[in-house]
Amino acid sequence: MDNEVDRAHEVGGSVSGALAEATEHQHGARAALAAALRAPSHAYLFSGPRGAGKSAAARAFAAELVAAGAPDPEGARRRALADPPAHPDVTWVAPIGTQHLVEEIRRRVIAASAYRPFEGSRRVFVVAAADAMAEESQNALLKTLEEPPPFAHLILVSSQPAGLLETVRSRCQPVRFVAPPAEAVAAALAAAGAGASDAERAAASRLARGDRDRALALLRPPGTDLRAAATALVSAARTRDLSAAPWLDLLELAERAGAEAADELRARLARAEDPEPRRGSAREAEEAVRRVSRRARTEALDLGLALVCAWLRDMAAVACGAPDLALNVDRARELAAAAEGLDARAPRRAAEVAMDVRRRLTVNVGEELALEALSFRLETLLAPA
User: Fold this and answer.
1) Residues 6 or more apart in contact with residue 95 via CB below 8 angstroms
2) Where in the chain is the domain with CATH 3.40.50.300?
3) Burial code of 306-337, b = ≥16 C-beta within 10 A, e = fewer?
């Protein structure tokens, strides 16, 4: 496989260290991209779970595409790898809120792809979180995907490719990514100086299912607070002491995450303020802030429930006599105490109930009522007779 990368280096322009690094644990994706550099297609779909390195690989692949045939390949590569890209022939389009605006897709991708490259022989357009395109945006992009100019290359990046129309997916060359092993994520966290111990890093890596960014978030607030709140909720249900309404802590942390995301986006928009704002831009900006806030709140609450499910799963593993299967490896003593005298079927069933609530909260469900009901159901399932 490494030979394929070397051959791509020789034939299609060098495979940079950035591309090799981004695909370190992605042998299938690395082979596919090495082959693609020899004969680039007009459109690609980089798909796989969060944290698999799709965005880094897309950035590095785009850099290789524009470097090939450029007057200064190293300079072109370096500018294309910047975040945001500093190369005029690399366009990176990300949703400001929960969805891409169709006007942005039309202006920055569809219309722009008709113009010849500024410097080299290629232009590259990366659509991050492509599944966040509404159906109108995807339909608008179809013609460009079907009949792009010969110098234009499109890369769609998606963690949920099922959210893309089949007509869009079928017009792209698939490049699939998998979640990196927990050990690799833990090693990256250690290299970054994150976490106080190997056990904490191992737990964060296992809980994040290969998502390095999520693992890092679990090692600092509000991730650490969410872990504590999730464990406290299950503990309160286990001891029949729900008088303090522990589910409200999860809701409060989710509200805080939403507010912080809103403040951050407002600050970003203020720094990039257009001196000649378009009509309706203020209204659109505030709508984007509301969408970002809602998404951050929903994601924090979803993570909190995922941590509840993980703790219940670990209780079942310990009750079955298999503590080595636990995800929360840094809290072995707490798990042993929580699972003591417990029939493994009880936390297993409780985890199923929590997962069902987690799924239902993706639609318009009363969050506080749902979490309160979940807490009392857990009490029934987990409390000693």
Assistant:
1) 101, 128, 129, 132
2) 2-176
3) bbbbbbbbbbbbbbeeeeeebbbbbbbeebee
d(CA 208, CA 214): 6
Distance of alpha carbon 153 from its chain centroid, rounded?
23
Answer yes or no: are the C-beta atoms of 315 and 342 closer than 8 Å: yes
* Separation of alpha carbons 254 and 256, rounded Å: 5
Q: Does domain 2-176 have CATH number 3.40.50.2000?
A: no
Strand partners for 156: 45, 127
CB 126 within 8 A of CB 99: no
Range of 190-199, 280-289, 314-323 with top mean pLDDT: 314-323
Residue 265 falls in which region: left (phi positive, over 0), alpha (psi -120 to 50) or beta: alpha
**Token pair belonging to 280:** 């309706």
- Whether the link from the prior residue into 222 is cis, omega within 30° of 0, is yes
Q: Which residue has the tokens 């007009």?
A: 42
Mean pLDDT for 107-126 is 95
Q: What is the mean pLDDT of residues 254-258?
A: 95
Report helix, strand or coil for 280: coil
b/e 73-99 (16+ beta carbons within 10 angstroms → b):
beebbbbbbeeebebebbbbbebbbeb
**Structure tokens belonging to residue 63:** 């850099």
Give, for 297, the enclosing helix (H) or strand (E): helix 281-319
Residue 10 has pLDDT above 70, yes or no: no
| Strand locations in the chain (E) | 43-47, 90-93, 123-127, 152-158, 173-176
Angle, helix 198-207 to helix 281-319, in steps of 10 degrees: 110
- Chain segment 260-294, per-residue pLDDT in tens: 999 988 888 787 654 444 445 677 778 878 888 98
**pTM for this model (two decimals):** 0.73
pLDDT tens-digit map of 331-371: 999 999 999 999 999 999 999 999 999 988 866 668 999 99
